[in-house]
Write a structure and sequence with these properties.
The protein is an all-alpha fold. The protein contains ten helices and no strands. Helix 4 packs antiparallel against helix 5 and helix 8 packs across helix 10. The longest helix is centred in the middle third of the chain and has 19 residues.
């Protein structure tokens, strides 16, 4: 995609949603980290349902340790892979207490050393909590990057690298949120809603989906 088209692509998404935010609910940086770890292979809606009660009781790593594994599992048992996620949350909480005085480190490489924290999770925390211009490539962003031609790549890292290279200011801070939300609500996996897409003329996806009343249901 040409530079001018990339700029216009983001400009339109920004115009429609000037201040995009993560849909995960949290009250502080530690809760954000926990929520993102829990969101792996799960929906934000499902995570929020589980964490509302949990975060009403737990706001710090030490409080999570005091709750213990069984207590945590009881709160997150509706989330997929909750057994392994509970172990990771407790393990990372112990590390935060032992090494970082209970604080979440503002460094991507350090975050990735924590149990259950991969590059995508670290990028989300760096962006949402610390304002870093990072690009967290989830399944939605990966699809949008490739389908539209904005940031094609065979792997999430390849898409991230392309976004790092081509995303212009002033859009870098919120770029990954715009793209994730666009993929979640408009450029859907099975049937993209092209008829209401604000960047339809810039997108390289050829078989544009017609409106429901004109196409098949």
């Amino acid at each position: 995609m040409k530079k001018a088209d990339i700029f216009e692509f983001y400009r339109r998404l920004a115009e429609a949603n000037p201040a995009p935010e993560t849909e995960l609910e949290y009250g502080n940086i530690y809760q954000l980290l926990v929520a993102v770890v829990l969101s792996a292979q799960a929906t934000d809606v499902g995570v929020n349902k589980a964490t509302r009660a949990l975060f009403g009781k737990v706001t710090t790593p030490q409080q999570m340790l005091d709750m213990g594994e069984e207590g945590l599992k009881e709160h997150i048992k509706t989330i997929g892979l909750f057994n392994s996620k509970a172990k990771n949350v407790l393990a990372l909480s112990q590390i935060l207490v032992d090494r970082y005085e209970g604080e979440v480190p503002a460094d991507r490489d350090t975050l990735q050393t924590l149990p259950g924290v991969g590059r995508k999770t670290a990028n989300v925390v760096m962006n949402c909590a610390f304002g870093a211009e990072t690009f967290a490539v989830d399944t939605h962003l990966f699809r949008v990057g490739n389908r539209t031609g904005l940031a094609p790549g065979k792997t999430p890292l390849a898409v991230e690298t392309r976004l790092e290279k081509d995303t212009p200011q002033p859009f870098r801070r919120h770029a990954h949120h715009w793209l994730i939300l666009h993929g979640r609500y408009t450029c859907k996996a099975r049937r993209p809603e092209c008829w209401r897409c604000p960047v339809i003329d810039l997108c390289r996806y050829k078989p544009k989906t017609p409106p429901p009343d004109l196409g098949t249901t």
